[in-house]
Amino acid sequence: MAEKDGTLPLVPETIATFLNSLPMTSDRVKWIEVFRDSLHQLLGDVDRVVVSVDTYCDMLNPEEYRPDINVVQHTSSSDQASEAVMTTSQRTEQGQSGFLLEEFERLGYPLADYHPPEIYDYYYGGQAYLATIFLLRNRTKPPISQRTLDAMRILQPFLTFTLSDLVARHYYAKPLNRVFNDTLQEISEDAGLSLQDMRILTSLLMGYSYKQVASRMDLSLDTIRKHIKRIYRKTRTGSLAELFAKYFTPRIGIQGLGEEDIM
To answer: What is the DSSP letter of 117?
Structure first.
């Protein structure tokens, strides 16, 4: 029976229903979308749920996992529409939550329309970063209820488990994704590229054209070309193919890399 605010009471049965709704898939986009929507439905008085998952989290060596560059997928849910999953590169020295909030603003999220978000970071073994969940409530409505805040506290071990499970399944289904992410970190450290350089390079490596990268990043084609020239100069390469051969080929047998294996 629903409570007055339209939410379901958080009891073992509703938690079990939530957990059972999650698909057993290594497709992180599909999993995150179902996870986001199911959590949104469970909590009830939240207008937008934003989920960012680090599927490269090293659960074998959590005490050593300190990523500098990540390719992160985050997706949100709202009353009005389900938004597409976005992929970005990031530096994590600013802190996960702070960096992600900056990314949301850069990507045009209407954060000013909401109360300050409730933010929850999740770590594997208390050390390796797994994910961040943002809960947002429209300013025209009362803030998120204490009932929802208590529910998130109760759900913490369940959410950590489910997020860890996704990372494990994704790792075994697509091991080359870890290679892709690790190589990006090597490029960043070796060449000292800026965050903007890394965003552009990541998009190019994922198959986006110059025009698509310019549109995604709201930059001119001329600016994109200038960044690409700087990337080649700093990496001491002359083309994307040469950069790939220099950094990626030593990590993976070129014959073992298929388009379906990356991302």
So the answer is: P
